[in-house]
Amino acid sequence: MSLKVIGVGGPRTGTASLKMALEQLGFGKCYHMEWVFNHTEDVAYWKELYETGTTDFERLFDGFQSTVDFPGYLNYQAFLKQYPEAKFILSERDPEAWYESALNTVFSVTPQTFGQKLGMMKKMLFSKKFRDMSKAFLLVEKYLWKGLYEGRFKDKAFALNRYQGTNEDIIKTIPASQLLRFNPADGWEPLCEFLGVAVPNEPFPYKNKRKDFKEQLNKMLNTGEALVLK
């Protein structure tokens, strides 16, 4: 299925809210990192896309009309080539607030230290669910923390510079007519105007707040249950 809307904002920029909003607006299922953790067979397609610039897009996005968050957002150049008519949405957030949120959520739960990795390995020995889950964590580690952020995410100045530089590259790459710079705090109006759809009557969905996100991630890590964003 051809993607109609592509989110090019990173984790903790309101991507879960944008996912829900796009689904409410009638753009079908929206692909998000949540899906990868629960369907780790997709990891192979993402690795191929990162390494070669292409993959089996039809298989990867079967049943989806949009994508947001990691692992998709860093492949904006490949997506622009594959889906030249798509609309792109750059979800943005105050850099300082973004860094503090990302550091204490997605970064902190990704196994970083030897002890954390050893703990995950012990769980993997006895559980297929944890072996599958590790594939998704390795994808995040390789292409986000060690790739984009070069293993230096704890260096705040470096991370902020890379975050802002990535957004600048996206703005330079995507044609202005196809790109919306969007802060979820702005609600429905700019999003609906950009997508050419009516503004819904219900409130804009503000999802995946820090407390809820950490609870769901910790639950997944402790029990191996599916990740469900709230």
UniProtKB/TrEMBL annotation:
Pfam families: Sulfotransfer_4. Gene3D superfamilies: P-loop containing nucleotide triphosphate hydrolases. PANTHER family: P-LOOP CONTAINING NUCLEOSIDE TRIPHOSPHATE HYDROLASE PROTEIN, P-LOOP CONTAINING NUCLEOTIDE TRIPHOSPHATE HYDROLASE. This is Sulfotransferase family protein.
